[in-house]
Every structure is written in C-alpha cells, then in structure tokens.
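Example record

The entry below shows one chain as it appears in the dataset: sequence first, then structure tokens.
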Amino acid sequence: MVTTSVKTDTVVSVKDLKTYFYTEDGVVPVIDGVSFDVRKGETLAIVGESGSGKSVTSLSIMRLIPTPPGKIVNGDILFQNESLLEKSDKEMRQIRGNKISMIFQEPMTSLNPVYKVGDQISESIMLHQKASKKEATAEALNLLNLVGIPEPERRLNQYPHELSGGMRQRVMIAMALAGRPDLLIADEPTTALDVTIQNQILQLMKDLKAKRDMSIVLITHDLGVVAEMADRVVVMYGGQVVEQGDIFTIFEAPKHPYTEGLLRSMPTAAKKNGKLYAIEGTVPNPLHFPVGCRFAERCEYAKDLCRQEMPQIQNLSEDEVVRCWKYTDRWEA
C-alpha cells in the first residue's frame, strides 16, 4: 500500500482497493490493489488508457459498482476518516450529492430528457438541502449564474436537448454543486466538447474549486488536461497504480516506462510535421493478465524478470511511488 495512515488534510484515502467483476468467462480483477490519497483543496488526476480502471475506481469511491456482477472484494475507502464500505445504502445516499458529487463525460446520458433543466436542478437541491420548491428554484438560478450559463432564467424552462453540449455540461456541474460537496469526481468531463468549450469548462472547474474549497478527482486520458488542472497525478495501467507523483515530477522526470510513453505520445508544436509516437500493443485483457508486470509486453526495457514476477510498489519519496523493477536492487542483478 502507498499509505499506512490518513493525514489530517486527507479528504479521501483509497487503500489497497480491489474491485472484481464475476462473469461467465471468469473473475475479472478490474481494480487490483489501488491506493492513493486525495488532499483537501487539491486536484488529483487519474490517467491511463481506456481499460486501465480509471472509471471503475471512481464508481467504487461512489459505491456505484453494479452488483452483480461487480463487487469490492478487498481494501477500504476512507472519506473524512470514515469507511465508505461500512456505510449502509441509506447513509451512502446521504453522502452522494451532499459530500461527494460526480459529473460524467456525456451529460445527455445523465440528464432526463423529459424534464426541464430547472426542475432537475431544483429536485437535486430539495433532496440534498431540504429546501422548499421556491427556495430550490432560486438556488437553481444562482447555480446557473455561478457556472456561467447565459440567460439563466430562460434556461431553467428549457429541456436538455435545447441546450448546447457545453451548456449541458455546465448544468451537470451545477447539479453536482447543489449539495456543496467536499469532493467532486469528474469523469472525462470535457471529452464530448470542442476545444474552446473544453477550456471554458476546465477554467470553470478551477474557479469553482477555489470558491468552494473543494477537492477534485479528475479522470482523464488527456495529458494536456492534466497539465492544465492537476496538482498530483496517479497513472493507472491494467487495474493498478504504476506511478504517482506531483505534476512537475510526472511531466519532467517520469519514472515508469508507461508514463514515459504517454508523455511521448502527446502532440506538441515541435511534432507537427512528424509522426506521433504511439505505444505499441494494447492494454492486456483483464481476464488473462500476465504473471509478471502487466506492461512488460509493451515495454522497451523489459527483462525476463519483468515477465516472470509482478513488481511491487516502490516508495521513492513521501509523494512519489512507482511499480517497476528498474527501481529495485534486483534490476542489475
């Protein structure tokens, strides 16, 4: 495990989390021993390719894993020093929206198409703040103002399909803020948006974090977004954390070969006339993870040791960890 105790400024501490899915084909260890902390007022980015386990990690924190087939089989998730895994379903419903909120990458799948935007936000406010209909409508208007939606009075009476993608995403952020959460989980919040709107949404999240003193967990595969938003980064591969560190260390001195590959894959002005680098191969099927390092078959540094034994997490400093044989005594043996 990365951490053995919860620091006083820690909002969420994920400890040796294992979330498995039980299918007809076998047991799928989608999350396999993940540990990290989220501190008060920071943005922690979780990055990795599709299939690395990012979204299932966020759903595990929210206790929204579909059961069956999914199940959290090991570890703990501490929120403000209390175990979320020991909470009843009723207690979790009180926590979701009030203390922990989540926004998703495609708001049209989260907003109800047959209800007006104002009614959906007001319902969330009435549920979480025990407000009257009149109070909730007034607060919904305030939230639409807060997230920068033009003509908020008119938008309250519109349906989701009448709004642009960027405005729908702002509505989702407004709903997520209705309970004044301490933690906001944003799962690929800008993927479906064009670049200009994407930048506006990211700036909005940064402004709201400062105003509300929230912590943010940002799930993304886009390292450009990470550079813009994050204080610290967790890199996931094959359901495991392979590297973790502050934003400067990750970008300037990455330790894991997978992190190196992700950074080399980023488009830059210097590469505009050349071919973009791509990591060869694909993320392994979680039904058939290799015995050794899960990245070994795609790694240019891999040795027999890497293919034969799973490397354990190495603590390089208080804030920097890596899962790689290169940083052990056995590498040169």
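Notes for this example: Confidence is low (pLDDT under 50) at residues 1-5. The chain has eleven helices and twelve strands.
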